[in-house]
Amino acid sequence: MVNLGDIFPDFTADSTEGTIKFHDKIANSWAILFSHPADFTPVCTTELANVHKLKPEFEKRGVKLFALSCNDTASHNAWTKDVLSYSKKVLDGSEETTLSFPIIADPDRTLAVKFGMVDPDEKDAAGLPLTCRAVFIIGKDQKLKASLLYPATTGRSFPEILRVVDSLQLTATKKVATPANWNVGDEVMVVPSLSKEQAQTEFPQHRLIEVPSKKEYIRLTVTKDM
């Protein structure tokens, strides 16, 4: 299991783009490693098709993408055709023959177990557990910044994952936090660790929201100049 703030472990694995040495592949970029239960399944197909379509948005943010499941590379390569077909027919994707990110093979479940991605309630025909829908967002420093776990029955919202990346990248360099339902361009919160004087210096345009407790901890500021 990898905890927030830990260096995400390096590994070497086969993939649809050949052998991947993870740390070398991500280099000094942000990265997302996300697992899916199995190839040739309906929800997983919709997820990877959506990620494929959103690849330009992830690239704008300097994020490299890596999918993973317990299937082997031959299965991944064959399934890719279905993913691209779904993207074209349902998501109005372009005519493409190559998926825009690699799918890592983990047939012996070494990585799934190591990273806590095993779903005990979902098993293959042989009775072996499948990977859950995990998401690991990794920063330029190779540390884990956020992680999400979904069951097999619930497909992920990748626009929401983009929103999380936007928040992580903003708050990595600015002394702010993003409130509920925040999107790029919305006001952000000045972090409580900044004193009243520091907040005035760093964010002279911020505003205080008065509350019954009289505690001055809800301070909003704009992000357009950040």
Automatic annotation (TrEMBL):
Coiled coil: none annotated. It comes from the Eukaryota. InterPro entries: AhpC/TSA, Peroxiredoxin_AhpC-typ, Peroxiredoxin_C, PRX_1cys, Thioredoxin-like_sf, Thioredoxin_domain. GO terms for cellular component: cytosol; mitochondrion. GO terms for molecular function: peroxiredoxin activity. Pfam families: 1-cysPrx_C, AhpC-TSA. Residues 2-170 form the Thioredoxin domain. PROSITE patterns: THIOREDOXIN_2. Thiol-specific peroxidase that catalyzes the reduction of hydrogen peroxide and organic hydroperoxides to water and alcohols, respectively. The active site is at 44 (cysteine sulfenic acid (-soh) intermediate). One of its GO terms (biological process) is cell redox homeostasis. SUPFAM superfamilies: Thioredoxin-like. Belongs to the peroxiredoxin family. Prx6 subfamily. This is Peroxiredoxin-6. The lineage of its organism: Eukaryota, Metazoa, Spiralia, Lophotrochozoa, Mollusca. Keywords: Antioxidant, Oxidoreductase, Peroxidase, Redox-active center.
